[in-house]
Amino acid sequence: MNIILIGFMGAGKTTAGTALAEKLGFCFLDTDHLIEQQSGMKVRELFEHYGEEYFRSKETECLRDLLSKGGAHVISVGGGLPLREENHSLLKELGLVVFLSIRKNTVLDRLKGDKTRPLLKGADVEAKVDELLRYRNPIYSQAADLVVETDGKSIRTIVKEIEEKLNEIIGD
Ligand code: S3P
Questions:
Q1: Quick check: CB of 98 below 6 Å from ligand 1?
Q2: Nearest CA to ligand 1 atom 15
């Protein structure tokens, strides 16, 4: 079985995912990282040169590749990956989906000065984050088997909560 972490930018998917994988003895994988490795370009460059739709297709391809790898991975996926309808069934096939939720102010705090997220470039980042969160949160909830709130929590606490909720679903 795989465990997949979804949620908005800054929710801690990569950091919590790495720690969770270590605790469970699973391998950690990250779709942004896999796409960068495979294309030889940074996510930011892929957006700049080919546009968002191209990047979204790469995400779907990446999910299909992951399905052929089998289980025992913790997989962190880019914040926009669950938005594509076809990715929902791929995510479900891949394993248990955990939504790491985050509030607007926490995103703004955690991603202050970040230059790697093309969607948060430009003026009025606060309004952008607000708009994206309102649109995306119901989609994340729909795609997920369980939700863990991350605001004000350390990575250690987040990982502990994920483990507890996973145990409730699959048993110890
Ligand atoms: C995106 C999130 C990013 C990355 C890209 C687009 C999004 O990943 O895939 O910049 O649409 O939310 P993280 O969620 O890991 O930051």
A1: no
A2: 78
Nearest residue (CA) to ligand 1, atom 10: 117
DSSP line for the chain: -EEEEE-STTS-HHHHHHHHHHHHTPEEEEHHHHHHHHHTS-HHHHHHHH-HHHHHHHHHHHHHHHHTT-SSEEEE--TTGGGSHHHHHHHHHHEEEEEEE--HHHHHHHTTT--S-GGG-SS-HHHHHHHHHHHHHHHHHHH-SEEEE-TT--HHHHHHHHHHHHHHHH--
Give 172's pLDDT tier (boundaries 50, 70, 90): low
Q: Is 7 in the pocket of ligand 1 (CB under 6 A)?
A: no
Flag whether the pTM goes above 0.85: yes
